[in-house]
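Input set for joint prediction.
Command: fold jointly, output tokens.
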Amino acid sequence: MRSSADSLVRIEPAQAHQRFTVALVGPPNSGKSTLFNRLTGLRQKVANYPGVTVEHRLGQMQLVRGTQVDLIDLPGVYSLDPRSEDEQVTHDVLTGRREGTPKPDAVLLILDATNLGRHLMLAAPVLSLGLPTLVVLNMADELQNRSGEVDVAAVARRLGTPVVLASAAKDQGMEAIREFLHGEFAVPVAPELPMVDDVPKCRAWAARVSRGAYRAPDPPLWSRRLDGVFLHPFLGPLVFAFVVVAVFQAIFTGAEPLMNGVDSLISASGKWISTHLPASPLRDLLVEGVWAGVGSVLVFLPQILLLFLFIGFLEDSGYLARAAVIADRTMARAGLQGKSFIPLLSAYACAVPAIMAARTIENKRDRIATILIAPFMTCSARFPVYALVIAAFIPERQLLGPFLGTRTAALLGLYVLGFLAAFVTARLLKSSILKSSRAPFVMEMPPYRWPTWQSLAFRLLDRAKVFLRRAGTVILAGSIGLWILAHVPAKDGVAPPIAESLAGAAGRTVEPLIQPLGFNWKIGIGLITSLAAREVLVATLGTIYGIEGDENSAGLQAALQRDLTPGGAVALLVFFAFAMQCISTIAVVRRETGGWKWPAIQFGYMTGLAYVCAWAANRIVSAFI
Amino acid sequence: MQLNGKYASLADLRRGEQATIRSLVLPESDSRRLMELGFLPGGAVRAGRSAPGGDPRVFEVDGSEVALRRETAALIEIER
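tokens >
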């Protein structure tokens, strides 16, 4: 292009708007995501490939001279052999066969410098694509700390493509990457490449490339020492139990001050609106519909973020891989594998990210079983419902001195109930329709690393965005819809009593169906609206009882006590423990399983189980009280 | 699939013991995955720590550490 002076003149102005697509490829645990965050900062978004369950991140880099680079962070893979969905997507994107994604102009191949021999195997299939490639040897700081060495120039010569040493976590070597993206891309000219589908030959080739140019680092001493505790026959399970309890404690108590803060902010702003806006249906809609409805859900943001902070820390530090090893036996008893542990733990915050996290499970049947049982885990959306009903019906008494009160015990009991339902369901599934020859449980143990604040912050930001988007769409629409339905048909310009409104009519239609559970038509309206999201029940009851302000107030509890028998209250708790009332979960299960079959089965099973168990609970409790 | 018992398997290794991998007696796709993680015939492997009860166990192999269930380890033949 630059051979003639004529074309040079034309290139200069065009360069101001130059735009490249660059793909990030690398094995799992190579620090790809950290590098991606480093390069793109906040200019990134998470997206899903249509039709498959593989998530990818897109980001933009602005280089000087007006060049813009679109970065695609591809899933971590060990090879480009399209066996798993991750590998298929990576393969398709790199060869330009993935619809909607442009074929990359260049590739950044991220390899772990502390494990170069094995990681170099991925260079063979990537280089044979013939795309301009920069090999980034990441974790240079760790290599140096453990007295390893690499001759970058020699490796580059043997690979026939540029190589840089970098540490995304320590922000080293980023300039060299930007330099590469600036420059003229050149197709790699590797002197020799092995047959890429022969693993032993690939490994031998990788050994030749690094021979004499690489001194492997000393074993990670600290990781061995920590494993001496975390995988100790006695201490290991003890630490495991402690971690699980600590995560729970964070859900129960750690987030409380923050939640109270958000709560008072919402009530204060709601009060401000009701005093500063003239009385009108619009004001009522805002205060009773939007503020009571959406506000009751926003309160849970701190709790969810705190939980994801914990999970992010455990995952980035490398502990979660050890936890999966320890949990594997228990999971095996349910017919699942250790990898199911991570999604199931995150399901305590929310089933939606948990179901997405199930992607790490390679065995398809295990993955579907994990997806199907995840919504049984007590997600944070159930929390407001549990808290309200328990506070209204269970008097606080000490059970074990000051350590355990009746209300905490009731709450813990509901968590256990959800877990049992998940366990039994998994066993049923794995011994019947999802029976599979057990795929090997293979899990790489990354060395322990101190998580970077940056990567934790990005995780929280992602979660907050997802959560707020949900509050701003599903829950906002549901709240407004319910408020309107509770105010029509108007008679002589005046809203009817709720019982005679459309919402009331809907509640009374389902009343015969739910009466055996001990629920009346008002609870019926709540059950219908909570199909959108469980926590909407609380907001709905708040609106129905015509109580303004805090839906957790004593007023709402008193109203509930009038409307529910103790049997009905327990039935309501049991119903919420089992039923699948969450549009987002249904949508994500449909997306992840690629059809309506599994979400339909799941919805039918969970709702059926909820109905039968709530009925039984009502009968049993009513017989005794 | 089962080993004929002529050779020992990875499942026979105790913590700290070292051996050379002889062959992988697993379905094609499973053995490829294991080979990509470092379990290559001719390669050295050392048994590390495990979950309580010895299953799953972590193996040090080709510069990294990988956890395997006993049932999988039993299908990897070794020579001491």
